[in-house]
């Protein structure tokens, strides 16, 4: 955005071009300087980002699932992960909670998980994901969950913005 204060929804004309390469290089510099332990990108079960994950795997870029439960209850999150019918069905059949199915799935993808709870019982629940696993059928079911991005990047695309089409902004997963 142009420097200064702005309110949401922002004015499209206030968007500035984004130089992804320089941003990533600056993040690498932060890591080299010891300002960040690790740098990476984010995912969750309703935004699995398969294309991006394959790219990251090839490049050795680590992935972290921040807000893996979809940040339910926040002003910018959604209920889509916790209300997912597929995750709920697996949870009931397996005697686990939807959150546990979600966190275990993320863990099985080989990525880091940053889940948050202020509730002691839910913290314990969220940690209890290591002594069991998902079956191949359950993993297949999760891979078929219809994909929805919480904050769609379409809001950045317009004739007044530096991004005239979605492909000028990112790949097909916007
Ligand atoms: N660096 C980044 O770019 C970035 C981006 C996003 C998020 N983050 C960080 O990642 C962490 C997690 O993200 P988040 O808090 O946005 O989202 P989240 O972990 O997906 O969801 C947290 C919400 O889920 C609830 N919850 C937690 N465990 C639950 C369970 N077992 N059953 C039912 N509800 C449960 C929490 O409520 P209760 O507290 O009441 O349990 C809270 O409302 C945070 O520390 C956040 O700051 C970082």
From TrEMBL:
InterPro entries xref list: AKR (IPR020471), Aldo/ket_reductase_CS (IPR018170), NAD(P)_OxRdtase_dom_sf (IPR036812), NADP_OxRdtase_dom (IPR023210)
Top-rank taxon: Eukaryota
SUPFAM superfamilies found in the cross-reference section: NAD(P)-linked oxidoreductase
Record-level Gene Ontology MF annotations: oxidoreductase activity
Stretches assigned to the NADP-dependent oxidoreductase domain: 41-145
Pfam families for the chain: Aldo_ket_red
Protein name: NADP-dependent oxidoreductase domain-containing protein
Organism: Carpinus fangiana
């Amino acid at each position: 955005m142009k420097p200064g204060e702005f309110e949401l929804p922002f004015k499209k004309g206030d968007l500035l071009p984004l130089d992804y390469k320089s941003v990533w290089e600056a993040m690498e510099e932060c890591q080299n300087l010891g300002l960040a332990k690790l740098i990476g990108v984010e995912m969750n079960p309703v935004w699995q980002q398969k294309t991006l994950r394959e790219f990251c795997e090839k490049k050795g870029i680590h992935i972290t699932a921040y807000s893996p439960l979809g940040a339910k209850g926040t002003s910018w999150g959604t209920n889509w992960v916790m209300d997912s019918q597929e995750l709920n069905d697996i949870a009931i059949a397996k005697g686990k909670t939807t959150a546990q199915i979600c966190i275990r799935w993320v863990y099985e993808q080989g990525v880091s998980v940053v889940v948050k709870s202020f509730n002691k019982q839910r913290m314990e629940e969220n940690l209890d994901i290591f002594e069991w696993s998902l079956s191949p059928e359950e993993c297949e079911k999760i891979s078929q969950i219809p994909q929805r991005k919480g904050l769609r990047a379409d809001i950045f695309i317009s004739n007044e913005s530096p991004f005239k089409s979605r492909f000028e902004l990112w790949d097909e997963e916007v």
